[in-house]
Amino acid sequence: MSDELRADPELPRAVALAWGVAAHPQRGPKRELSIERIVDAAIEIADAEGLGAVSMSRVAASLGFTTMSLYRYVTSKDDLILLMQEGAVEPPVPDDAVERGWRDGVTAWVHAMRAAYREHPWLVDIPISGAPITPNSLLIVDWFLREVRDLPLNDGEKMSTLLLLTSYARATSAQERDLGAAAAAASDPGEVTGQSAFAALAELVTPERFPYLSPLLLGGGYVAPPGADYDDGDDDFAFGLHRILDGVERHVERLGGTSSPAAPEPPAEPPAQLDLPRDPRVRDAAKARREAEKGVREAQKALREAQKRERDAIKHAIEREQQAKRK
Question: CA quadruple 166, 169, 172, 176: dihedral positive or negative?
């Protein structure tokens, strides 16, 4: 298709509004509305009553306007929800002067995502409809890529790691929200944790039928103890997050990265009465070990250089293709 026949790219209305490049309505109500006022009102309703309470008519009424007045600015409820999501998630990107290891950086990033879900629990109810394309959502991606910039992961692996961590933060936040709501609605907190049914379960969960669950249940490890704070799952959350990061770190080590590699196993202590350094077989084995270690270091260096060349080649290829399209 020639350039003359190729249509100019056009952003969806809500995305263009998020980027601030959409045309504003020529005529509006007597008391001027704005996208910001509409979105803020919708977020306020969702924070108080949940996403299901948000409608165009409800938002319009809260602002003192007719529903048709809102449609001059936001063309559909789906567009409004996208703008609400964009307005509710403003990532606290750290200053460039902040220096830390990748694990600390990624941990801070995940906790920022979790804080947004806690502040606006309805965010977990918004379906995922595609890749991030709004400014704040792309800032979240950019911040994550900054934290893992020194890891020897290719672009696909970095984005897969981001997807894994965002899914974990979203799922655990939804669970925490739901448990908190159930605890608030229950007359007895034991109804939420299982404490009220514990005695009956202890009779039904027998070692014969549940040989592995039964000891856990009888030992009190299956349900939270009475008086526990059911709104705070940080211990469970932290455990899961650390195990995910352990897995990423192990993968980095296999790639030959320098992300806190495990210390090599020390050689066994020889008996004191043996003068092993004089044994030629020991000297030969030690020499072979040093040569092997040198070979590993050289291979790791070569791998990192090859990965860098690959990334640079991909970047230059994309730039050349974009230049050719512009011509």
Answer: negative
Question: Residue ranges per domain, the chain?
Answer: 13-88, 106-253, 279-327
Summarised one tens digit per residue, pLDDT across range 58-100 is 999 999 999 999 999 999 999 999 999 999 999 999 988 888 9
- Whether 71 contacts 38, CB under 8 Å: no
Check if the beta carbon of residue 142 is closer than 8 Å to that of residue 105. no
Query: Band of the pLDDT at 206, cuts 50, 70, 90?
Result: confident
* pLDDT, tens digit (0-9, with 9 covering 90-100), for 276-301: 445 567 667 766 776 776 677 677 66
Task: State pTM to two decimals.
Answer: 0.70
Q: Hey, do 13-88 and 106-253 end up sharing a CATH topology, with the first three levels equal? A: no
Angstrom distance (rounded) from CA 164 to CA 160? 6
Q: Which residue has the higher pLDDT, 10 or 164?
A: 164
Q: How many Cβ atoms from other residues are within 10 Å of residue 147's Cβ?
A: 23
- Give the separation between CA 174 and CA 165, rounded to whole angstroms: 14
Distance in angstroms (rounded) separating the CA atoms of residues 43 and 35: 12
Residue 233's CB is within 10 A of a number of other CB atoms, namely 18
Whole-number Å distance between alpha carbons of 242 and 113 = 16
User: What CATH architecture does domain 13-88 belong to?
Assistant: Orthogonal Bundle (1.10)
CA distances to 195, 260, 288, 299, 302 from 295, rounded to whole Å, are 59, 20, 10, 6, 10
CATH superfamily for domain 106-253: Tetracycline Repressor, domain 2 (1.10.357.10)
Please, which residues have CB within 8 angstroms of residue 152's CB and are 6 or more apart in sequence? 252, 255, 256, 257, 303, 304, 307
